[in-house]
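Suppose you are handed a protein chain with no further information: no name, no annotation, nothing but its sequence. What can you learn? This example shows the usual starting point.
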Amino acid sequence: MMVQEKLQKPHECAVCNRKFSQRRNLRIHLRTHSGERPFECAVCNKKFTLSSSLRGHLRTHTGEKLFECTMCNKEFSRSCTLREHLRTHTGEKPFECAVCNRKFSKNSNLRKHLRTHTGEKLFKCTVCNKEFSRRYNLREHLRTHTEEKPFECTVCNKEFSRSWTLREHLKTHTGEKPFECANV
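A reasonable first move is to predict its three-dimensional structure. Written in structure tokens, the prediction is:
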């Protein structure tokens, strides 16, 4: 394959217009839009778009950590996670938004951020059709339909559907009042 061919990205996603040099990478990318996750963990049933992601995930069950940070000795089960972690020491933020120049240490965070500019919402609720720009927000929203409350207060056992509402609730037990009244 010639160098010029490598630089070309002729395979374009019909959903978000992202371009790829190989058709295989476009097919894998399309899973982000379809939600297809064909690789399933036999231990916890979590699903993944890539087989390599599943292999890395399996180490969370075995406890195997092959990669160690030379700066703080923290261990990681995946080399890519170690590379991302190293940026916490160096402060490196190699991924820059072309719109507002904000920089990110992770490419995935840049991609999520870009949706704030485009308004793109890839994740749709199958119950009410509300759309979200982040998968996490869709998962959080789905709890409004299921009434699932996975976050429980360890003090009074009150349950919450969102982690941040639990964090705010915990302040009622500690007496913390982070906001000051302006009318005092």
